Here is the input.
Amino acid sequence: MAMAMAVVTVAALAALAWAAFTPVTFASREETFEIPKGTWARRMAGNKVEILPSRVFLTLGIRDVLLLKNMDDVPQIFGPTLMMPGQSFRLPFEVASSYQFACTAHASGQMTVVVVEQPDTPWRRLAWRTRKILRTVA
Amino acid sequence: MSYATRFAAPLTCLLLSLTAHAADVPGRSAEGRNPEGLKAGVFDPAREAPDFSVRGSDGSALTLSRYRGKVVLLGFGYTHCPNVCPVTLAVLAQARRQLGPLGSQVQVIYLTVDPERDQAERLKQYLAAFDPTFVGGTGSAAQMAAVRLSYGVTAEKHGTGSDYAVAHSSFVYLITRDGKLRALMPFGHKADDYVHDIAMLLN
Here is the structure.
């Protein structure tokens, strides 16, 4: 029993240490959202198609570029702007802040891009990863 | 040997190796920037900026094509705007001043989202307070709505009576000398960012 407790404790400490000490990295700086081909047709058929969340979370230096792509056959209001078929819109962020954009695709009429500082200390990395997990499960 | 002692060594090793790993934090690189280095959001491919013909604050017909050969900064707003428009226009005026002689190759066009109250003369007076070269545009409600639609700009009236407000898109379009809708600068950017991008577009 004591042995099992010790193993669990070490595993938990190891997980916490990993979350605190391992740098946060992504393969790409771009957070990509794409309107797939046929989206307009599906909407016209009465289907609810949600592509862009009302809140997007970015992190400076790691994932700080919002990339929107319209792969559909018709122009689409996507996030803050009107995009032609086949067009992309790439928006980099350099300052941590909360950015509000008018967006008719959302019921609130707004889209928010939350940009946070790069987590560069163990405690911040732990907090960053915890928030990410909470957002995922929420 | 106690359990604590037994696990202390591997745990210490793990923490030390993670600490060494954590030191290798990637710095901010140029990777996140747009290929052209623009600070604004970039459209790829750039499309032809929709032309329009509205009543200009200078009394003449205002078209976008009139300014072919200049970099155009196109914004949408209204003269009763309490916060966003004054800030945006002040930033644009500062950027134009910072550009020095290059500023003459830049044209700011501000189209009203409140044609009911923004007549040409009112727009002229309002914009002149920021920069006398700024040109405003107004027209019928249907005319201005059509222009907004072609750019994907939203504007929604809030409140009743004469003291209403208009919630509107707050970004500024960057249009190249040859009339291409190249980029979009979100609200909140400083004059330096505009100067940076305008200089790139002029070159």
